Amino acid sequence: MKVIIFFAATFVLAECFRARGIKASVTLVAKCEKPKDPHARVFLMERDFGDSLFDEDDTLNFGNIYLGKKPEEKLQMTGIEAEYFGIEPYLVVVHSCNKDGDMERYTMDLEKGMETSSHFDVVLDLDKQQHTISQSPL
Questions:
Q1: Which of 19, 56, 122, 129 is deepest in the core (most CB within 10 A)?
Q2: Rounded average pLDDT per 10-residue block, the chain, 138 residues
């Protein structure tokens, strides 16, 4: 009987601390009037707690977006990550929408400590280096 109680308690405890898969879905519209190179690379990332060689941030998804089109192109991405205490998704956009035409990175946090799956609508103005984010549950 003690063995059964031990295994039942172990199962309940393990279930309480099991990592849950949390989904981050993004629709991105990126604006750039005169890109030197119209191709931009977009990464949906998840920030991990430490910044060490053994625990790098996770790439949840990646894609390409074509800048300079009217109307602007939309990029949709989804990623799932299993963490015990929520996830911290963010976007990285590598682009050449600047005066020099050099490649640069634009990084934006979507949410810190996200514990439930969510969708983010992001409008990014690379000319002004500004963005707006609206969030809704999935």
A1: 122
A2: 66 56 96 92 90 80 94 96 91 93 95 94 96 96
